[in-house]
Amino acid sequence: MSAAAEPSPWFGQPRGLTILFLTNMWEQFSYFGMRALLVYYMTKTLLIDQQASSFLYGTYTAFAYFTPIVGGAIADRWLGKKKAVIIGASVMALGHFLMTFEATFYVALATIALGNGLFLPTLPSQINDLYHADDPRRPWAYNVYYVGVNVGGFLAPLVCGTLGEVYGWHYGFGAAGIGMLAGLCIYLAGSRYLPPERRYEVAPQPSVAARGTARRTYGVLLAIGLAVTLFRGAYEQVGNTVALWADSGIDRGLGSVSIPMTWFQSLNPLLVILITPFLLAYWQRRAAAAREHSPVQKMAIGALIVAAAYLLLALAAASAGDGRASWIWLAGFFLIFTIGELFILPNGLGLFARLAPPRFGATTVAAWYLAIFAGSLCAGLVGTLWSELSHVTYFILLAAIAAAAAGFLLLIDRPARAVIATREEQRESQTLDPQAGIPST
């Protein structure tokens, strides 16, 4: 067993996963810290109207997930994964610090998006290289990694949001930049625990059967990506129109104090941290009993649960009428929403990473973020309807979008299961030369 694959006492996973977890945690702290402030900053300080702010929010998040397509290809072909992470993190930190100046607002958004292009696909694409093909810990690694996303997401609104609301938005943006630098330092300090860059032999021309498998694999990934695109149109409203409703439609009173509006965005990542261990234990019990749902079935279940969460908001808005709904409704929404998220998003990322061709790990993971790019554009357009529809009608629309994504996922489950089984058989048949890091059959 290589040093990178040795277990650690932390979740019983390789030490390298701990480094990737912590690096990702601080990167997500910076992203969610900035995202928690962005809509409020545009509407309250830059005085951009709601429709334009929602569309700009959706456009920014979309392009932050489009640049990884180019960045993943650059990492796979020229830079390598480690250099791409280091350069990307450095550029992103610069962008966050530029957010502290009103004059460089648009330049800052572009800088963060460009750095994200190198960072985002190359960090999770290193997870698979930490494990041998038959390592039983590999299927759960992406759920553990996803906890890191949400530890950062939980801390960000509390720290950056509080600084922004109490002392000024620019202090919150500055804290986000410091978080990005912390992630970079952890990655550099722990790089010895990460797997070396793999060198692959020139592969022979694939057989007809191999080409057929590749076509089916790409077809399944495309279909999953389209379903996720649709789903993100509803999912991404959490940082957009749901955040606006938390400000204008929710009674945030708790005794004699008012709960800061940005704090509600910490509920989702906090619940991810709390719920994930129980959900993993539940899935492990079902797997032991040979009753586990397929990855695509889990994703469909997650989309349906998110649809139910938005129906709860529709009920809350209807019950409030022209007044404000209790913050308890919003807390209940985040509980249901988070359970659905855990079913769909880590499983989707894991599928793209597990089905990736050996030479195109970062590029294939980047394709997952391409679906998020398209979905974020969709979310920006859906967000413009907030001012046009009643709140009840709008939340019902979001529920319908999530339910439609679930239906599409169920339609592609059978071909997806066949492709997954074939790809896993191929992976298990491979062995790795530990000296050269060259997969051979």
From TrEMBL:
Topology of the protein relative to the lipid bilayer: Multi-pass membrane protein
Entry-linked NCBIfam families: yjdL_sub1_fam
Localization, UniProt: Cell membrane; Membrane
GO biological process, one term: oligopeptide transport
Source organism of this protein record: Allosphingosinicella deserti
Gene Ontology cellular component list: plasma membrane
Protein name: MFS transporter
Major facilitator superfamily (MFS) profile domain sequence ranges: 16-417
A Pfam family annotated for this UniProt entry: PTR2
Sequence intervals crossing the membrane: 21-43, 55-75, 105-123, 144-164, 170-190, 217-235, 263-283, 299-321, 327-353, 365-386, 392-412
Protein family per UniProt: Belongs to the major facilitator superfamily. Proton-dependent oligopeptide transporter (POT/PTR) (TC 2.A.17) family.
